[in-house]
């Protein structure tokens, strides 16, 4: 199976072009103001105009108001919503748009419970737990906590970069990997070489193992 790749936290049109040219299956835009990767709906709309056909655009939110998500959806043609906070299953399902739920992992039961509670999601994203931040920490977690039984597609995130993603894919065999900080030169600024190395590594493992 080919492991899908999402490059998240894009803030510049050139980074959309670099990511999709390198073979990204999805890009992510952060609609969470405290993040250094935050984009306004107007700039997100402009960024998405550079996304080619058959590549999807995901909008990342952290504990947003209903009104804010609806306002973003009115202005920005998103294919998928990514909820990275403490949103309930009912909240996530209320927008009529496909969505994934992020879970910050401290123990296996965090993932098992999320699979049970968020079963209407299109996928479950697993990320490192941090006491102060909801994500984008650049920290990996103990991948052996991830159970083999996965009722939904599993997306692996957290501290991935070109030097650890092949090991991650071999060990976890996720549906997709999601990276932000590991392909940046500074916060919110992607690096074309890091993106290309990252995606090539994923494809290399897919083809060889
Ligand atoms: O990128 C952010 O600033 C962010 C803020 C709040 C929640 C999630 C955020 N990013 C997502 O976190 C994971 C892991 O990121 P990293 O590769 O460790 O930097 C990923 O899905 C990011 O999109």
From TrEMBL:
Q: Which reaction does it catalyse?
A: N-(5-phospho-beta-D-ribosyl)anthranilate = 1-(2-carboxyphenylamino)-1-deoxy-D-ribulose 5-phosphate
Which protein are we looking at?
Answer: N-(5'-phosphoribosyl)anthranilate isomerase
Q: In which pathway does it act?
A: Amino-acid biosynthesis; L-tryptophan biosynthesis; L-tryptophan from chorismate: step 3/5
The UniProt record lists the N-(5'phosphoribosyl) anthranilate isomerase (PRAI) domain at: 5-200
Q: Which family does it belong to?
A: Belongs to the TrpF family.
> What top-tier enzyme class does this entry carry?
isomerase
Family matches, as SUPFAM superfamilies? Ribulose-phoshate binding barrel
Species source reads Marinobacter azerbaijanicus
The keyword Amino-acid biosynthesis is annotated on this UniProt entry: yes
The molecular function terms of the Gene Ontology recorded here are: phosphoribosylanthranilate isomerase activity
EC assignment: the record states: 5.3.1.24
UniProt keyword list: Amino-acid biosynthesis, Aromatic amino acid biosynthesis, Isomerase, Tryptophan biosynthesis
